[in-house]
Design a protein that fits this description.
The protein is mainly α and 76 residues long. The chain has one domain. The chain is built from two helices and no strands.
């Protein structure tokens, strides 16, 4: 029972950290946008950034398949 609560707490902390990191990164990106940028251009830039983030994650997953359930991991 104690293990369950520890794991649930850890999951909650990881969720909060992910939300915090996402907000922080968005604020940093938006702070670096030039003044007077329209909403459409801002959305386009943010969409491109999200695409770059997805590509980076996909590349990391491809380079490290043993960490993401791919490959045999050296186990028989």
């Amino acid at each position: 029972m104690v293990t369950f609560w520890i794991l649930l707490g850890l999951l909650a902390v990881l969720g909060i950290a992910a939300v915090y990191d996402t907000r922080r990164r968005r604020q940093v990106l938006e702070a670096n946008l030039p003044a007077g940028v329209s909403r459409a251009v801002r959305r386009k830039i943010l969409r491109e950034q999200r695409g770059q983030d997805r590509a980076t994650r996909a590349l990391y997953t491809a380079e490290h398949p043993y960490m993401h359930g791919g490959g045999d991991g050296g186990c028989l």
